[in-house]
Design a protein that fits this description.
This protein has helices spanning about 15-30, 75-105, 110-115, 140-150; strands spanning about 1-10, 40-50, 55-60, 65-75, 120, 125, 155-160, 165-170, 180. By secondary structure, it is an alpha+beta fold. Strand 1 (about 1-10), helix 1 and strand 2 (about 40-50) form a beta-alpha-beta unit.
Length: about 180
């Protein structure tokens, strides 16, 4: 993180150096909330003094995180402390928003990952976008499959026929008729 401290109109150079070193010490507190290894970041202190007013302005920019604070008091050290507190509050708020957004989307399950990245069929060199649905393990009669079709929101039910032991499909046609497909 690049830290710059600029002082304007401070009374004497000795005080100026002490105040600059104090500001650099307080910069460590701000650096905790900024991830400078990912994005180039910059922290600027502008310290000025006019008559009886001491002003500390702090600006932070790191990627898409930006925060600015300006505090005016009678004491420069108090102004720096208050400005750093304000910046820390702003940075906490911005980082909490990001973590809440990540939590809302949630961690992806294996099914979500498979759907977003369909597996590659190496033999044929094309992507397969199949979704696998498991059938109930117990065989059903045609009447049970018909009831299952009524209960579910699907347009068809594939089932193992308990009478013949073969796979059957029952579906609702566009006209609203139930149609049974047998092998």
């Amino acid at each position: 993180m690049k830290v710059t401290v600029t002082s304007r109109h401070l009374k004497n150079s000795k005080d100026s150096e002490k105040i600059k070193s104090y500001a650099l010490k307080k910069a460590n507190r701000i650096e905790r909330y900024v991830k400078s290894e990912k994005d180039p970041s910059e922290l600027r202190f502008i310290l000025s003094s006019e008559k009886f007013r001491d002003t500390a302005e702090i600006s932070v920019s790191c990627g898409n995180i930006k925060a600015i604070s300006s505090v005016e008091t009678n004491d420069m050290y108090a102004a720096i402390d208050n400005a750093v507190d304000t910046i820390v509050k702003q940075l906490k708020k911005q980082t909490e928003k990001k973590t809440k957004e990540k939590r809302r989307t949630g961690a992806k399950t294996k099914e979500d990952v498979i759907e977003s990245n369909p597996p590659l069929d190496i033999e044929n060199n094309y992507l397969t976008d199949l979704k696998i649905h498991k059938l109930p393990p117990k065989p059903m009669s045609i009447d049970e499959a018909s009831l299952q079709l009524k209960v579910s929101d699907a347009n068809f039910v594939a089932f193992k026929n308990s009478e013949s032991g073969l796979m059957n499909v029952i579906y609702i046609s566009r006209r609203g008729q139930k149609i049974l497909i047998e092998p």
